[in-house]
TrEMBL record:
Catalyzes the condensation reaction of fatty acid synthesis by the addition to an acyl acceptor of two carbons from malonyl-ACP. Catalyzes the first condensation reaction which initiates fatty acid synthesis and may therefore play a role in governing the total rate of fatty acid production. Possesses both acetoacetyl-ACP synthase and acetyl transacylase activities. Its substrate specificity determines the biosynthesis of branched-chain and/or straight-chain of fatty acids. It is found in: Cytoplasm. Residues 110-191 form the Beta-ketoacyl-[acyl-carrier-protein] synthase III N-terminal domain. Its EC number is 2.3.1.180. Belongs to the thiolase-like superfamily. FabH family. Pathway: Lipid metabolism; fatty acid biosynthesis. Keywords: Acyltransferase, Cytoplasm, Fatty acid biosynthesis, Fatty acid metabolism, Lipid biosynthesis, Lipid metabolism, Multifunctional enzyme, Transferase. GO terms for molecular function: 3-oxoacyl-[acyl-carrier-protein] synthase activity; beta-ketoacyl-acyl-carrier-protein synthase III activity. InterPro entries: ACP_syn_III_C, ACP_syn_III_N, FabH, Thiolase-like. This is Beta-ketoacyl-[acyl-carrier-protein] synthase III. The last Arg residue of the ACP-binding site is essential for the weak association between ACP/AcpP and FabH.
Length: 336
């Protein structure tokens, strides 16, 4: 017997520390016009030293809200799935940290490393476990602490102005209503482009002291690298393909989309997709202007905000889509 899974509760958390484009202009050669024109971002949130936040802790804060809204006790969680590219430690993963912090009884905790596509990959994992009947309630979290690993100088501005910190969470459970819930998920990757958007070190191949010794200071490879134009070109192509794939799988048309929530990578990408599909402003939700790109956290943060603002209602057809490092891309179609 196959069950239907649905999202029963949503929550998000972002640090209180707001970093504006003007703030960044004091650290690097940039300005509000330059950043806004290229990314659409006006501000982002960064963890501040002493505020008690980390990737796992922000995930816990988002999870508590999602659990309360789902009206599901923490000890009824059968599986924890945690998506991030910025874990607190190399190991163990953030999933077990969340389990300990929430005092959840013994259950499996699984960490997903699919960067910007991480939340949808995690959603697919949770959906399949529920559909097969193996688990009933799954806690899914996407959380990122980017600010601690960015090059906050002119050298790194092409990447560093884009990213912010935050977390989003969803509680998935079995649906009692026929047709309500996650209709399908679609996952892809193309590894030949992996190094077009990557962080090569520090890693088990290149530790920090080794990098500092071997490389000139002006070319530090332990900050993120992004081939911006190449990523943009591939993103708009794959976004389109994976959205259409999800619609066709479920016999839907573009006109059937009540809300498209794209990964908040760049406002220009979202606008390109909106124009291509001729979607109205009320059919697409963007909040990158406020939070920047929070990678695995961006979709659950945006999904939660859209729901909180009453822009998602029962029976709506929701499409989630993401593209990012790997290259990986994914979509999900949901009957809310």
């Amino acid at each position: 017997m196959l069950y239907q899974s649905k999202i029963a509760g949503l929550g998000y958390y972002v640090p209180e520390n707001v970093v504006t484009n003007e703030d960044l202009s004091k650290l690097m050669d940039t300005n509000d016009e330059w950043i806004t024109e290229r990314t659409g971002i006006k501000e982002r949130r960064h963890i501040k030293e002493g505020d008690g936040n980390s990737t796992a802790i922000m995930g816990v804060k988002a999870a508590k809200i999602a659990l309360e809204r789902a009206n599901i006790d923490k000890d009824d969680i059968d599986l924890i799935v945690f998506a991030t590219l910025s874990p607190d430690y190399y190991f163990p993963g953030c999933g077990v940290q969340v389990q300990e912090m929430l005092d959840i009884k013994t259950c499996p905790a699984l960490d997903v490393r699919n960067q910007c596509s991480g939340f949808i990959y995690g959603l697919s994992v949770a959906d399949q476990f529920i559909k097969t009947g193996m688990y009933k309630n799954v806690l899914l979290i996407g959380s990122e602490n980017h600010s601690g690993g960015l090059d906050m100088t002119t050298r790194g501005r092409g990447v560093s102005v884009i990213f912010g910190d935050g977390a989003g969470a969803a509680v998935l459970t079995r649906s009692n209503h026929n047709g309500q819930g996650i209709l399908s998920t679609h996952l892809h990757s193309e590894g030949k482009h992996a190094l077009e958007l990557a962080l090569k070190g520090p890693s088990t191949m290149h530790w920090v002291p080794e990098l500092i010794e071997e490389n000139p200071q002006e070319d530090i490879p332990y900050f993120p690298y992004m081939n911006g134009q190449y990523v943009f070109k591939n993103a708009v192509k794959r976004f389109s393909e994976v959205i259409i794939e999800g619609l066709q799988e479920n016999g839907l048309e573009v006109a059937d989309i009540d809300m498209l929530i794209p990964h908040q990578a760049n406002l220009r990408i979202s606008q390109f997709i909106q124009q291509k599909f001729k979607l109205k402003d009320e059919q697409v939700f963007n909040n990158i202007q406020k939070y920047g790109n929070t990678t695995a956290a961006s979709i659950p943060i945006a999904l939660t905000e859209a729901w909180e603002q009453g822009k998602i209602k029962d029976g709506d057809k929701i499409v989630l889509a993401a593209f990012g490092s790997g290259f990986t891309w994914a979509s999900a179609v949901i009957n809310w």
